[in-house]
Amino acid sequence: MSFLFRVFEQRRKRRVLRRMVAELPRLLAQRYGNSDSYSRAQVRKTLEAAGYRGRYVEYAYALCLNAADAERELDNRVVSARLRKELADEFFDGDTDFTIKLRRRGEVGNSAHTSIPLTDQALGARNHGITGTADADVP
User: Fold this and answer.
1) Are 54 and 74 in contact (CB under 8 A)?
2) Would you say 101 and 107 are in contact if contact means Cβ atoms under 8 Å apart?
3) Residue ranges per structural domain of the chain
4) From the CA atom positions of the chain, what is the Rg in Å?
5) N- or C-end of the chain: fewer Cβ atoms within 10 A?
6) pTM for the complete prediction?
7) Residue pair 17/59 in contact by the 8 Å Cβ criterion
8) How far apart are CA 73 and CA 12, in angstroms?
9) 79-103: per-residue pLDDT in tens?
10) Per-residue pLDDT tens for 42-61?
């Protein structure tokens, strides 16, 4: 595999996983109610309805099933643990005990990617001492 192909494949994978992490919890909660994990049949039906096929589907099982069900679905404990670790590092601040229970917007993702309100102190630091406005003109 060429270097360029690997780069594009990594970008595609990240885009698909970002969409999956954002979309699947909402879709599953709409169909089956909000839960920490779902059954294999529920995940499979939701994946089919949402149009996820082939590549990266195993990440959906690692994301949505509890650890024991994910191991059975993926036929391998090591694969399940590796996928959960990859998802945890990318979207859950490294917490491999994550659940997909529907969260408020801004709670899913790395802390560097979430949108949190800035305090006056943070605004002052960012705006060179001018507090109270996020859009202050900075010289």
Assistant:
1) no
2) no
3) 3-108
4) 19
5) C
6) 0.67
7) yes
8) 24
9) 889 999 999 999 888 888 888 876 5
10) 999 999 999 988 888 999 99
